[in-house]
Amino acid sequence: AQSVTQPDIHITVSEGASLELRCNYSYGATPYLFWYVQSPGQGLQLLLKYFSGDTLVQGIKGFEAEFKRSQSSFNLRKPSVHWSDAAEYFCAVLTGGGNKLTFGTGTQLKVEL
Amino acid sequence: NAGVTQTPKFQVLKTGQSMTLQCAQDMNHNSMYWYRQDPGMGLRLIYYSASEGTTDKGEVPNGYNVSRLNKREFSLRLESAAPSQTSVYFCASSEFGRGDGYTFGSGTRLTVV
After folding, report:
1. Residue A62 DSSP SS3
2. What does the pLDDT profile of chain A (113 residues) look like in tens digits?
């Protein structure tokens, strides 16, 4: 069965520091992968997606992610975190049959000023 | 340019009561989805509708029913609410042929007492 694992439940970084959020997936075919961000009390917003091609994808708000097939990973990165980046981040993989998204359990990011 | 609209935003039910959560999208998307979000569990798919006229069960369908009323609207019904259904419910729509992810509504926070 398809699955997504986000091993870090909580991460705290200082403002201005770099960030890497981990995501590992389990999927038999070439995966379509996504990162979403959820601010408190809000819905989910798409940060970036990987379908094929260049394994380093750029998203909104200065985020990027790298697809590594050999490691079954799709980690999210940002060179310099801003206090407004504090939110919950979800990795997801698209599965066939109705184009369903399977989500990880999320990583809560706290930014210290 | 509303995107995905969910109503109501908040609801408190007594055990055994019924209610319908409404969802409408104005992006002409074919597919619509209902998820529930619980702490530490990410988002889990309840039901989805790949296209108008079809509905299918997701990961956690028990206790719920859905209706795809037309291309724009997809409702979720709780026939006899239980405390275990206390959650935040998100509706989403998609058109993956355009290479997009999901567009989410802002959620309905439901408490069953």
Report:
1. helix
2. 778 999 999 999 999 999 999 999 987 777 889 999 999 888 899 999 998 888 999 999 999 999 999 999 999 999 999 999 999 999 999 876 667 889 999 999 999 99
Of B110, B113, B104, B111, whose CA–CA distance to B6 is shortest? B104
Q: Which two tokens stand for residue A62?
A: 């200065």
Of how many residues is chain B composed? 113
Nearest to B36 by CA among B8, B4, B61, B69: B61
A101 Cβ under 8 Å from any chain B Cβ: yes
B43 touching A, CB under 8 A?
yes
Q: How far apart are CA B7 and CA B15, in angstroms?
A: 20
Six-digit token pair at B44?
A: 């889990």
Closest CA to A33 of A16, A45, A43, A46: A46
A34 at the B interface (CB within 8 A)? Answer: yes
Residue B4 distance to chain A (closest CA, Å):
10
Find the length of chain A: 113
H/E stretch holding B103 reads strand B102-104
Q: Contacts of residue A57 in chain B, CB cutoff 8 Å? A: none
